[in-house]
Amino acid sequence: MVREPVDAVIDLGVLPADEPDEPAAPGGILRWVVRRLAAGVAVVAVLTGVTAAAPLPRHRLSTLAFLPSSAGVARVVDAGLVMVFENQRAVAYDPAGWRELWSVPGAAFAHAIAYQDLVMLFRGDAMNEPTGEKSEWVRAVDRATGQQRWSSDRQIEWHGDVMISYLPTGDGQAVEFRDPRTAEVRWRLPDSQSWAPDERRAALWRLTPDGTLVEHDLRTGAVRRTARVLLPESSHSLTLRISRAAVGITAFGEGGRQRDAPTLWYDAADLAGVSGAGQWAWEQECGRGLFCAYAAEGDRVFLVDPATGAVVRSVTEGSVLGSPLGVLALGPQEGDAAFSLPTVGAVLDPLTGDRQTGLKGWRVLGMDDSVVRVLAHYDLPHKLTYLAELTAREAVRLDAVPYLLRECTMAGRTLVCATMAGDIVVLRIEQER
């Protein structure tokens, strides 16, 4: 899995002669790290618990560009657009030559997606607006010029060619289904206990106040069917869940999900009651051609076939992340866990279950959605970051770079990384020596 070339010399150059010991055996951390690495991590906390880096195969890195930034982070939108989010603006770059295309003023932008000739800029937390200013959750701009087309003070979800907007808190809120390009309202959701979009069937499911299950066409709002189904006993509220082939209803009490009331599942084809076994409430890519799947009850991770949903293996390692090399079991956080980058404890082969510890102590530095692509090892005294790229065959050691990096994202064979100093550095991965 991780190899050392027989006829190659690994030139570690400025690695310290005496590296610290490896950390203790792996343990669990909060699963929220899967969604996104925090952009504003603190330098000292990130570098706490620096550990020895095992020798790895190596590629060369070269610096392509510096993108001046005020504590910014970079996000690759697509092959033709990279966004850098600073404290007070979002800046668009052309990755072909790293030329600045345009910038948009505004605080707290954290994410972007492209849709036709638009770029949607999403806020990380629109509730932290100055007193008296209207909160703004998303702003749509022209992809070529950055000129604003529309904005919304409502939370936005994206489902194919449908945009769902709603208020993030409050009961009885109005849910609207809009055209993403113009933001025009297509239809509004009637009063409901709960609702959930279903992209596989281009549907919107909802529970009416009297407990009737209704299926709507997601794009037009037309009612496809209604049915009275058995509901779980709830002391507070009911929530809809969508799996590959079924609709689930989960009961919640004041303190969260009611564990004495299991989720009831209904086949999406005929609404007949079905077993909850194999009904995944959440799935995401996990590398090696598999998905990580989670049931409505319990925290265990299952590795499943993305085509069928069939279980290949269950994972008992606690907190895990997917990677092209295998499933990364995360080790214990050292220092302040609220700011430190996740630490690798072991790599699990999803087919055999073998557990390898050659990458123990490396930190998760770069992810594409839910899959880890880049790991880091820090040399604080020399202000260096050693990088490793995870591939389907092995972990490949990249050159050390003379910057302390806090986050990276991949654009083809290019790494776009945020430094602790607040700059954005663009690094090219070259052929193996």
Describe the fold and architecture.
This protein has 433 residues and is an all-beta fold. The protein has a single domain (31-432), classed as 7 Propeller (Methylamine Dehydrogenase, Chain H), CATH 2.130.10. It has one helix at residues 43-46, and strands at 58-67, 73-78, 81-85, 89-94, 99-105, 109-115, 118-123, 138-142, 148-152, 155-159, 162-166, 176-178, 185-188, 194-198, 203-207, 212-217, 223-228, 237-242, 246-253, 256-257, 264-267, 273-274, 280-287, 290-295, 301-304, 311-315, 320-321, 327-330, 344-348, 355-356, 363-368, 371-379, 384-390, 395-398, 405-411, 414-419, 424-432. The chain is globular and about 65 Å long.
Essential attributes:
433 residues, mainly beta, Methylamine Dehydrogenase, Chain H, five-stranded antiparallel sheet, 1 helix, disordered N terminus
